[in-house]
Amino acid sequence: MKHHVSDTHTLAAAYALGALDPDERKDFDAHLRECEACRQEAAEFEATAARLAAAVAQPPPASAKPQVMAAIDGVRQLPPRIPATNAAPAPFGRTLRRRALPLALAASVAAAALGGVAVWQARNGQDLGQQARQAQQQLDEVSAVLAAPDARTVHGRSANGALTSVVASSRQNKAVFTAAGLPSPGTGKTYQLWLDHDGTMRPAGLIDHDGTVVLTGDPADAGAVGLTLEPAGGSPRPTTDPLLLMPLPA
Fold it and tell me: What is the pTM of this model?
């Protein structure tokens, strides 16, 4: 989709997400060479987007590896490709065979892995499906905020050393919080996010490790995002001093 030239400064998020078409990307690359503000904003969006994998990644259970390895023995392997002995292959033919052998091996390994994953999924399909749907929903929500034309970013550091970012969009009426280097909250504890509405702290979600979350609640009238350490499950109001109180991006 083409954008008017006056909208160039709003394309940093779409650029970071690879959502521009080739012509737009070429034009924006040229714009970046002249605009320090957009270079910084694009770099911030790229750094935030790079952390999204941590937000949706699901570590495999400990049982996955032995199940995959056990399934390998039951996967039929491809036979080796043996060249004919009565004729010397042409150079192009040798090139094809050199490519075919690694591809055949890769196909065998992929088939074995998929076979093992299929066994695991058959036993855990319901849980995996639910996790996948939740992860996809979260990713869609985060991406919508990052790609919004009016997305704005602020960065901060919590009292316990974590690097944090908040990306907010008035059009989406949503805000996204990202943390990196967040220490473990400890047994029976969790980190809780808050939206500061004129001094009233309202719960905005939980985060217990590095990653990205969409803040719950309405950020439209909020002035800042807070982070505290709370009992597991969260609290209706803060019970500890804030580790972070960061103004929402205007």
Answer: 0.54
